[in-house]
Specification:
This protein folds into 2 domains: 93 residues, no CATH class; 50 residues, no CATH class. Helices cover 33% and strands 23% of the residues. It has 6 helices and 9 strands. The strands form 4 sheets. Strands 1-2-3 form a 3-stranded antiparallel beta sheet. The protein has a two-stranded antiparallel ribbon with strand order 4-5. A two-stranded antiparallel sheet has the order 6-7. Strand 4 and strand 5 form a beta hairpin. Helix 3 packs across helix 4. The site of zinc ion has 9 residues, from helix 6.
């Protein structure tokens, strides 16, 4: 794909729920790539589609079925790489209005996990400055304590 090598200086991270993305330079010139979903779906086997519907859409399926879907999904990924880009993507050069630079906030340290957090995203809890994952944990069944740390988004006792 062209996108990775040509346009990387700036990106706007706005999610409209489409399987498409636009990468631009600061001057607004860029490229828009959208996935031709129908074409991609054509590559799925009946088994893959069935398992996708069951596991991903309906949130059902056992471990064996999940493993099978994972395997089929991997095969499908490699299969898609063999198709010419133009068949799988709509690719267009665009000029868009680029928003001003993102606002920069001060970073503060979470009292519990010790990781750096953008100041507007921290919460004060019992006099402590805590990150969102720690706060969520402390309001659910397993409250975080200072002896716990955030590991992969979960608060756990340090090793
Ligand atoms: Zn934290």
């Amino acid at each position: 794909m062209v996108v990775d090598s040509v346009l990387h200086s700036t990106h706007r991270n706005t999610n409209f729920g489409k399987t498409a993305f636009t990468l631009t330079y600061r001057n607004g010139e860029g490229i828009r790539v959208s996935v031709k979903s129908d074409r991609v779906r054509e590559e799925r086997s009946a088994e893959t589609s069935g398992l996708f519907e069951k596991i991903v859409v309906r949130r059902e399926g056992n471990e064996e079925e999940q493993r099978r879907l994972s395997s089929l999904w991997k095969d499908l990924s490699f299969q898609l790489l063999e198709i010419p880009d133009e068949e799988v993507f709509d690719i267009a050069r665009v000029v868009v209005e680029v928003p001003f630079y993102a606002r920069i906030f001060t970073c503060v340290k979470c009292s519990v996990c010790g990781e750096s957090v953008m100041e507007p995203r921290v919460r004060k809890s019992s006099g402590e400055t805590v990150c969102w994952p720690v706060r969520i944990r402390s309001t659910t069944s397993s409250p975080a304590t200072v002896s716990q740390r955030c590991i992969g988004g979960e608060c756990k006792d340090p090793p």
